[in-house]
Amino acid sequence: MAGSVVPATVAVGPADKSPRTERGRKTQRALLDAAAAEFGERGFHESSVVSITARAGVALGTFYTYFESKDVLFRALVRDMSDQVRDRVAPVLAEPGDAIAREGAALGAFLGFAREHKEIYRIIDEAEFVAPDEWHRHYERTAQRIVERLREGEARGEVFGPIDEVHGWALMGMNVFLGLRFGVQDCERPLNEVADIANALIRNGLA
Amino acid sequence: MAGSVVPATVAVGPADKSPRTERGRKTQRALLDAAAAEFGERGFHESSVVSITARAGVALGTFYTYFESKDVLFRALVRDMSDQVRDRVAPVLAEPGDAIAREGAALGAFLGFAREHKEIYRIIDEAEFVAPDEWHRHYERTAQRIVERLREGEARGEVFGPIDEVHGWALMGMNVFLGLRFGVQDCERPLNEVADIANALIRNGLA
DNA sequence: CTGAAAGTTGAACCGAGTTTCAACTTGGAA
DNA sequence: TTCCAAGTTGAAACTCGGTTCAACTTTCAG
Questions:
Q1: Do B173 and A174 touch (CB under 8 A)?
Q2: In whole numbers, what is the pLDDT of chain A averaged over residues?
C-alpha cells in the first residue's frame, strides 16, 4: 500500500530534519509509508511511534531524526493525501463532456482512489481531531473547486444556476459518503454504476 | 448545552452500575452532561476523566460508580446522540407534502438540531475511531431510513425510481456536510435558505 | 586511509491519564 | 435514634507511550 504516498521532500518545520543523503531519504520514506499504513489500520491514537518504526524496520530513535513529533508526521501525511486526491481527480476533468458529466467522472475517479487507498478516510477524518487546520483546509478547497467548476458550467449554459456554496458542500458530502460506502466498505459493486446513479441524481433530480 | 442528552436510564453493561436512588441518578446525569460538553469541545482523547468529573462537580472516583470506563460512557453517548437526531427529525416527516418536500423538511430539522448541538459532530465523527460499531450502526440506519422514505414516495409516484442504496448514502452525505458547514461552522446563514437550495437540487437536478 | 558528518540505536526518562480502593459521608427505613 | 446500603472521596498504584540522548556505525570526500 501507499508506495507513492511520499512527496519528494516533506515539510518538517523550523529545525531542519530533511535527510541529506540517499540513505536518509530512503529511511524517511519507509517511515512515511509505514505511518500511512499504520494510521490507516489503527488510527492515530492506536498507532505508536514504536509500531511505526517497527513496521518501517528501523529503531525507535531514528524516527526523531526525521520528524519532530508524531503530530508533525501526521500533518505531513494529511497534506499529502489531500494533494494526492486532487492530483488523481484533476486529469479526468480535462476530458470532454458537459460540466455535470465531468462531475460524474470526478466522482468515478475519486471512488477508484478510495478503493486503492482505503487509509485516506481514517487519515483525513481523524485530522478533524488531530490536525483541525489541515482538515479544514482540505474540505474548504475541495468544496471551492466544485463551486468553480459548476460556475464555469453555468457560464456555458450547461448547468442551471445560480450556483451557491451550498451546491459545493452538498456535492462534496455526497461524494465523500459514496466513497466511504462504495469505495471503502463495499468493494464489490461496480464503481461506474454508483457514479452513474449519483450523476443522474444531480443532473435530473428525483422528481 | 445538552440538558436533554440524558436518557432515563443508560446501558452500562454486565456489572450493574445503575443508580439506585434519586441522588445517584442526579450524579450520573451530571456526569453524562459534563461528558457530552467535554467531548464536544475537546474530543475524546483530550477529555480526561478528571476534567469530566471536575466539570460535573464530583470526585474522580465517583465516575467509576456509574461507568465501567471512559469508553463505555462514550458509547452510551453516541447511541444517545444518534437517537436524539432521529427523534428530532421524525415529527417533521409527518407533515404534509410530497416525499421530496419531506426530505427538505428533514434536512431543515437536522440543520436546526446541529446548530443547537454542535457537539454532535465531534461525538459521532470521533466514534469512527472510538466506537466503530456504534458509528456504523448510526450511518447504516440513517441511510436505510432515507431509502425507505424515498421508496414510499416512489410507490406514490412522487419520485422517479428506481431508488437505490446509492440515493440514501448520497442524500445522507449531503445532509451531513451541509450540517457541518451551515449548522456548526457558519451559524449566520438562514437555514431555510440552505435547505431550499439543497431541496431544489435533489428535486430538479442542475441541468 | 582517515576524519568528520550523517545516520542509527534502544534503554531510560518522563508526564499524563485511567483505574483502584479503603476510609468516609449521607439519607432514609425501622 | 440507630443502622446500613448507597454514594462519595482523592491519594496512589499502574500503565502506557512519546521523547531524549550518548554511544555506536556507516558513508564518503579528501
A1: yes
A2: 92
Q: What is the DSSP-derived secondary structure letter of residue B184?
A: I
> Cβ of A142 < 7 Å from strand D?
no
Give per-10-residue mean pLDDT for chain A (207 aa).
43 70 96 95 96 97 96 93 93 92 96 95 94 95 97 95 95 98 97 97 93
Cell 536518509 belongs to residue: A24
Contact B174 A175 (CB under 8 A): no
Are the beta carbons of A204 and B205 separated by less than 8 Å? yes
Number of H helices, E strands in chain A: 9, 0
Q: How far is the CA of B56 from the C1' of D6 (A)?
A: 19
- Torsion A41-A44-A50-A54 (CA) sign: positive
Secondary-structure percent of chain A, ordered helix, strand, coil, rounded to 5 = 70, 0, 30
Interface probe for A, chosen from B44, B125, B169 (most Cβ of A below 10 Å), is B169
Within 7 A of a protein CB, which nucleotides of strand D? 5-12, 16-22, 26-28
d(CA B197, CA B178): 11
- Chain C positions with an atom below 7 A of a protein C-beta are 5-12, 16-22, 27-28
Helix residue ranges, H only, chain B: 22-42, 49-56, 63-66, 70-93, 99-116, 119-130, 132-155, 165-178, 191-204
Residue B197: CB less than 7 A from any atom in strand C? no
Q: Residue-wise pLDDT tens for chain B (207 aa)?
A: 444 444 444 444 456 889 999 999 999 999 999 999 999 999 999 999 999 999 999 999 999 999 999 999 999 999 989 999 999 999 999 988 899 999 999 999 999 999 999 999 999 999 999 999 999 999 999 999 999 999 999 999 999 979 999 999 999 999 999 999 999 999 999 999 999 999 999 999 988
Asked if A158 and A99 count as a contact pair (C-beta separation under 8 A), the reply is yes
Question: CB distance from B165 to chain A under 8 Å?
Answer: yes
* CA-to-C1' span, B36 to D3 (A): 39
